[in-house]
Specification:
Helices cover 26% and strands 32% of the residues. It contains 5 helices and 10 strands; from the N terminus they run αααααββββββββββ.
């Protein structure tokens, strides 16, 4: 897909990713070395020729020291104090079946944010590192079931369960429910 045909959010996201790389003075090769993502994938994401996956964005967020909400908020307009349901930005990783709604309006001066997430049945997303080391997460299952692995500890969560964790290493989210899972994620930056 050409850039002028790209999803508007993907186009703004690609432009922001290119800006961040330029701000750091890195070539595509240097960013590839730092993130573990191929140069061609990075180039395609920056040109909005492909919609980046959650795993790819997580790797880039880790390199740039941002949470995914911070990065995504940078491609949105200045947030209002109240964000009505219809105005909450939604981002999808079509490859993995992950849908992410930024419930709370992001603000650079605040450390906390709320995210509603949905995973399709059988979805399995692995992150090799947190976007920000030591980020605190509270994960509350609203509907369905989710298996979460933080480093080497696996948690089986069902409707109503809440997991609190401080993320220092790899995590994995597997949808264990045949109907999918919907959960609320509270993220607090250190």
């Amino acid at each position: 897909m050409r850039n002028d045909e790209a999803d508007p959010v993907d186009a703004r996201l690609g432009a922001r990713l290119a800006e961040l790389r330029t701000e750091h003075g890195w070539s595509l090769g240097e960013l590839a070395d730092r993130s573990g993502v191929s140069r061609s994938t990075l180039s395609r994401a920056e040109r909005a020729e492909t919609s980046p996956t959650a795993s790819l964005l997580n790797r880039l967020c880790a390199v740039y020291g941002r949470t995914m909400s911070q990065l995504l908020s940078e491609v949105e307009a200045e947030p209002e104090a109240v964000v009505r349901s219809a105005g909450q930005p939604v981002w999808q990783d079509r490859t993995s079946g992950f849908v992410r709604r930024a419930v709370s309006p992001p603000h650079p001066a605040l450390r906390g944010e709320l995210v509603e997430a949905r995973l399709a049945p059988g979805a399995d997303i692995a992150y090799d590192r947190p976007p920000v080391a030591g980020v605190e997460q509270h994960l509350w299952i609203l509907e369905g079931a989710l298996d979460v692995t933080e480093q080497d500890t696996e948690h089986r969560l069902r409707t109503g369960d809440c997991l609190r964790m401080r993320v220092w290493g790899p995590t994995r989210f597997r949808c264990a429910a045949p109907e999918g899972v919907r959960y609320l994620l509270a993220v607090v930056r250190p």
